[in-house]
Amino acid sequence: MQIKDLTKFLESVAPLGYQESYDNSGLIVGNPEKEINKALISLDCTEAIVDEAIEYNCDMIISHHPIVFKGLKKLNGSNYVERVIIKAIEHKIAIYAIHTNLDAVKNGVNAKICEKIGLQNCSILYPKSNFLKKLVFFVPLANADAVRTAIFDAGAGQIGNYSHASFNIDGTGTFKPNEFADPFSGEKGKIHQEKETRIEIIYPAQIERKIIAALLNNHPYEEVAYDLYTLENNFREVGSGMVGQLEEEMDGLAFLNQLKDKMDLEVIRHTQILPKKIKRVAVCGGSGSFLLKNAIAANADVFITADFKYHEFFDAEEKIIIADIGHFESEQFTQHLLLDIITKKFPNFAIRLTENNTNPIKYL
Predict the structure, then answer these.
(1) Is the pTM of this model over 0.70?
(2) Does residue 359 sit within a domain?
(3) Which residues pair with 170 in a beta bridge?
(4) Quick check: 130 pLDDT over 90?
(5) Residue 141 domain boundaries
(6) In terms of DSSP H, where are the helices of 91-194?
């Protein structure tokens, strides 16, 4: 298998367009055309991880966090980032990161946390906007079904739990082919009227090329009339954090103890345990303090995340319990998520989880 075969699949699961502006997901080191035989999965890419890849003859590292977040001006080994890159290149090991784009998808990092702690009926806590677009086009009545189906097959028309969604209006189109035209209907030099259907279909912005190709390749007209609109609607399949419900409500202390067990935690930093029962729970892997207001607005009883600063704990205002479980701890099962995703698609590809704990924070 070539690197590009694996990365193309990963980017179909978590498109690079979903990553945050500060992020650097994607292929960081390596030639996409290179053949690979074995990959190592880790949360971070450190020198120890590269050494492990060398020991087990892995020619690719797939990490959640990118080793490079910003441009490198020199590569002389003066810090761990440079040393990792140099060693990976020397040993012909590719490095790939799948970070905030995997955080953002509905079946990504936060879904794994929800699964671990037993949440049900989960949804995106803070959906992204401006990630949906609408295609509007006009097609002869006799060709409407075929063109519409081709566009559905390309991935358009998905709204939550519904597929093949479109809106259709029949009307009359007019056009006058000039002497250079090759009209599907009508005659050169004469105004023609054609019974047409106006079709409106929404689609995720990142598959626009595929959608337009399906339209142009299946439409009978020489010149296809279509419009593209960017929508401000929230895209409920993509965003930050998740919120769900416990099967049965619990006391606050009992919930935190269960959380500690299920997430394999040494410690939880939390706000005051409130007298109300815990039923609705919000989560965000990694640094999620920016979502506190969203968690409160979603009527969550607890918000599980990491990297809260001292003064930010006051913002709970006895409306919610903040449970800061640690950055590494909140995302540690992302490695298992990636293993499951890849082995399901490529069952014969050799892949292993790291034996290294890359958490830089230790507890005494």
Answers:
(1) yes
(2) no
(3) 197
(4) no
(5) 131-231
(6) 100-104, 109-117, 144-153
